[in-house]
C-alpha cells in the first residue's frame, strides 16, 4: 500500500507534464549542476573589471559606465574598446550591496542562465510539444560549451545580452508594444555588441510567422533603426568608443585572407565542443597563415560534410510547410549568431566557448524540428523508448562533464595550471601562470611562463610588464628596468 502511495507521489512530479513543472525542474537541475561554481573565486578579467575598478565600487559612478569602457587605470580612468554599461551597472549594484564577494556574482550569473533557459523553454514551446521543448532547454542548461559563460563572472555580458534579447523576442511575438521591444533590444546592445543578432532574428520571425502589413512592416523597420541610431550615439558620442580592432589578437596577427583560412578550423572546434566536449580549456589562439591539407583541407572537408547534413532536412521537410519554415528559421538563427565569431571581424580570441551561447539556440531548434518530424512518423513504441533512454544518457554524461569543469574555475591558478596542459599555445594562460607564480614568489617558474607568453604573442605588453615586475621583486633591478622600458615601447 505504501509503495503504491510513493509511486503515486513520484508520478505527480511528472504527470501531467506542465510548463510549471518543467520550469521547476530547470531551476533544480541548474542549481545542482552549477552549485560548486558558487564557491569559486574571481578569475581572469574579474579582478580588473570589479575588484580594482574603483568606479564599480559605488552606484554614484553610473555615468562613468556610459562614458567609457570596462577596465580602470589611475592614469586613464575607464579604458578599453568594449562598451558594456549594463554589465558594469550590475557589477556596481552587487559591489555596493555585498562588496567583493564572489559568491554573489556567481549566483546572479547562474540565475540569469536559468532564467534564459526558462525563456527558451517558452520560446521552443511555440514550435514543439512540451517534452521536446524541455529536452532542448535542458541541453542548453547543462551543456559543457555553456560552462564558461555561466561560471566566469567576466562573461556576465553574454547572459545579459541574451536575457534582454530573449525578452524582446518574447514580447515581439506576444505583440506587445514596439517601444518596450525597442528598449529591451537597446539594453541587449548595451550589455554586449552581440545583441545586434536579435535585429535580423526579429525580422526573420516576422517574415516567416507573423501576419504582415505595410504599416506594421514600416513601424518595425523604423523602430529597429531608431534603436541602432540611439546605440551608436551613446557608444560613439557619449562613450567615445568606436569599433576599432587594432589591439585585438586576430587583428594584429592575421590578415583578412588568413582569417578566412582559419574559419574551417574554427567550425570544427565548435563541432567538437558540441558533440565531444571531453577536453575543455580556455584561451585558444591560432591562425592559419599557410593553408595545408592538415590545417585547412581536413577542417574544410569536415565543415562541408556537416553543412550538407544540416541542409538535408530542408529537402526532406519540403512537403511540410510549417516544419520547413521552423527548420529554416532556426538554421538562420544558427548562421546569423555564429557568423559573429568567425573572425570576419577580428576578435580577441580565435575561438571562445561563450561565443557559442546563442548559436546553441539555433542548433537546438534545428534538432527539435528533426525530432518532431521523425517522432510523428515513428509508431514503434520500442524505438521511442530507446530514444528516450539515449537522451537521458546523453544528458547525464553532459551534466557530469559540466559539473567537473566547474572545479577548474576555482581561481586563476587552478584554471590556468589545468588548462595550460591542454592548450599549450595560449599566451593568456602563460601570462596567467607567470603572474600566479610571481605572487607565490616562485620566480624561476614565473619568468619561464612570462617569457613563453611573450614568445607566443610578442606584441602584447602585459607579459613584458609583469616580467619586469618579477625581476623587481627578485631584486634584479637592471633586468626589471630593461623589461619595463620594453613594455613602455609596446604601448
Which key phrases capture this entry?
Serine Threonine Protein Phosphatase 5, Tetratricopeptide repeat; mainly alpha; globular; 69% helix
Question: How is this structure best summarized?
Answer:
With 491 residues, this protein is an all-alpha fold. It is built from 23 helices and two strands.
Helix content: 55-70%
Decide which structural class fits the backbone: mainly alpha
Count of folded domains: 3
Query: What Rg, in angstroms, do the CA atoms define?
Result: 24 Å
Q: Which strand order spans the largest sheet, edge to edge or round the barrel?
A: 1-2
Average per-residue pLDDT, rounded, comes to 90
Q: Cα distance, first to last residue?
A: 77 Å
Write the H/E string, N to C.
Answer: HHHHEEHHHHHHHHHHHHHHHHHHH
Shape: globular
Low-confidence stretches: none
Number of helices, counting only DSSP H or I runs of 4 residues or more: 23
Largest sheet: 2 strands, antiparallel
What does this structure look like?
This protein is mainly α and 491 residues long. The chain is built from 23 helices and 2 strands. The chain folds into 3 domains: 22-238, no CATH class; 249-387, no CATH class; 426-490, Tetratricopeptide repeat domain (Serine Threonine Protein Phosphatase 5, Tetratricopeptide repeat, Alpha Horseshoe), CATH 1.25.40. A hairpin with a 3-residue loop joins strand 1 (71-73) and strand 2. The chain is globular. The chain has a two-stranded antiparallel ribbon. Helix content is 69%, strand content 1%. Helix 7 (130-142) runs parallel beside helix 18 and helix 9 (156-173) runs antiparallel to helix 10 (178-191).
